[in-house]
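Please predict the structure of the following assembly.
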Amino acid sequence: MSLRVPVLYTEKDTFMHRRDPRVKWLLFFLFVVVMYTAPSWPWMVALTFLGLFMAFVGRVSWKWLLVLWLLQLPNFAALVIIPASRAFLAGDVQPFDGNLAFGLKLGFAWSAALFVSISLFSTMDVDEMTDGLRGLKVPEVICFTFGYAFLLMYTSLSDVFRIVDAMTVKGVKLKTKNPFRLVSNLARLMVPVIFTIVRRASTMMAVLEMRGFSFTEKPNRPWPYRFGVVDAAVLSCGILVFGLALAARVGVISPFFG
Amino acid sequence: MLKAQDFTFNYPGFKRKALKGVSFEVGRGEVLGVVGPVGAGKTTLSMALAGFVPRTTGGESSGGLEVAGMDPREVSGKKMSRHVGLVFENFAAQITQVRVLDEVMSPLLNRGVDVSEAEERAYGMLKKMGLEALNPKAKRTWELSGGQQQRVAMAATLVVEPEILILDSATGMLDPEGAEDVRRLVAGLAGETTLVVVENDADFLLGIAERMLVLHEGEVAADGPADEILRDAELLARCGGVEPPVALRVARALGLEESPLTEEEFEKVVGQVEVRAEEKPPEPDEAETFGEPLIRIEDATYRYPDGTAAVDHVNIEVRAGEIHAVVGGNGAGKTTLAKMVIGLNKPTEGRILLGDANTHEWTAADLAWKVGTAFQNPDEQISERTVREEISFPLHRRRYESTGWFSKKERYGEDYIAERVEEACELVGLDEKYFKSDPSLLPGGLRRLVTMAEALALDPSVVLVLDEPRVGLDAESRRKVIRTIARLRELGLAVIIIEHDMDLVCEVADTATVLNGGKVTLQGPIHEVFAEKNWGLLTEMYLQPPRAARLARSIGVDALSAAELQTKITAVREVS
């Protein structure tokens, strides 16, 4: 038995979890558009807070968020600190303008993207995500591939953990301070990982076919869609934010939203 | 219902034909048993009947093949899947969904069955397979044990009630009661469903297969009534890679001419039995038989992060020269316990002592010097290009000892490594001719022996852990594993085996621990644990008494293995 496979979905019953998966996908797509439409970095700060609020409502583990955000920290530092220090050394300090403003926009955009997407996707399990895509009339071949990619990732991770165990016993240390040794040892894992995956691939395809899965035909949906008034309201909020960002972009309202 | 006429197939890139001129016929509702050694073409035949060969594998085929009135090579996979269900040996590759219930429901939903009906049928099938207690709605499929995954795969195949069902070595990972459930299920389906049961366990096929096909190097070595073929011990041994049914084995060992298959036939053939009182082995004084304790598991508990105890306050002591079996149903905690012994899981409570040293601070790599391990699936262990490199790998990794930032000391040289590799191969019976072969491409039985030799190459002075050593092996490889275990006992090692095959356990083990839900339910010498008074309890824990023991009981003899039964009885032929 293995409980070690990290899964994106968190099984809880929150306001975010109860939303229709199609609405979550639409919010995600709207969010991506807003990111490109919003004209300035304060927009990104606002979206970051919105993402944090959504994460709070969806009771996403703060440890997960912190770890994922820390992984982005080098990017953030490179985008904000380097232009700021350049400007400072040149004696041309213009806070929140020029390169620094661009750096802030990008840095906060990344944070916002992380928080919003985790809040949306950690509240849908794989079937809900795939089901949501089907509900939006996305071609079945994409829906099937998307759902199956997640499953393959989870099952392969389970295999990889077992292989890591076996290789550890053989003397391949994956906890080493020497980066060269780490890379060489990781390469050692490749042979059993590839063989295990290749050996299972033909069986897996055969099993999928036998269970009646199809790249082209939609399966019977196990859950009814649950689009309600609250979902409509949430979607309206998303559309409103997009409208505001667009208005700011074309100059109808202040680009700063301030 | 099934018909092959001179069917030949070879995989792309291989000169050797996987199937050569195979011909047979199976009528509607008949049960065909297929046996053969590793590499005989059993899986290829199963896949060809289900329509996957050559469609998904590539390769060339010739000759006739007819399944439910269709040539599987000419119709779509979707059409074939409406008629044929196939359960593979590889349990992990049959998982297609995140949750257990979805796995069993999805084939129904994909065939247009209403959601509520699909759920009801899925629950019913999971109950039949003994999985209802798993919380199928929430349980993730990759959190199941190998045996549980196999049961789920079987449930997902059976739930759509296929006209033709093919079981390709599908019971290898199941606990004895699970295998017996499948046997009962097959027996229940016979007559209505056409069944092809690929199995190297002759006793499993007994009574359910009406016809038998013996495959050998891709060709049909024999085809006929199961009753006749199963009685032909020489044929099974020569071509089938199969151990004859236990009754027949004992009869042959006793020099009887008759070929009994069942307990009833055995009783009739043996007729009168004399227990050789003088040959009854004296109860050994355990303290004298075994050496000092080499490993002690003291009050060991392992909890998952969610607090579930996979292993719960377990105490085991294994002494030098002792073979200790850890048995239990699927998901009983056996593999988790083994992982604690080899240092991959640290006990959350209790301790594990090697001699007097607590292993808590040792890494798994450090422990491997003293505790050798052969994992359940050899594919997850093999990483090198040749057998020699694979077996010597742990020695090469440990050849130098780091003595500082830029300095190291040689522990041993190439000569020592070569010597150890040869000794380990000799011990497991692995021929030198395989040294240059790619271990990943060897048949399953040989891959298992390679990983056993690899575990022994470090010369573990204390203990060897073997996780399901019998799975996927044919009769010859099984015998080699048994011989190896016996030699390890002679060398004074402590061996822990985790096994579902109760006959193998009783053949090789001295003592046993029965786990159920992570807790020790029975423990002691093998004769105590498997004593007749415990048979009811064993069955409750998804285990079964060994077949040899049941056979022995049928003639009033107390014996656990075929060898013991032989030594205890003298058959006196009835004089008419």
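The mean pLDDT of chain A is 82. Residues 179-210 of chain A form the longest helix (32 residues).
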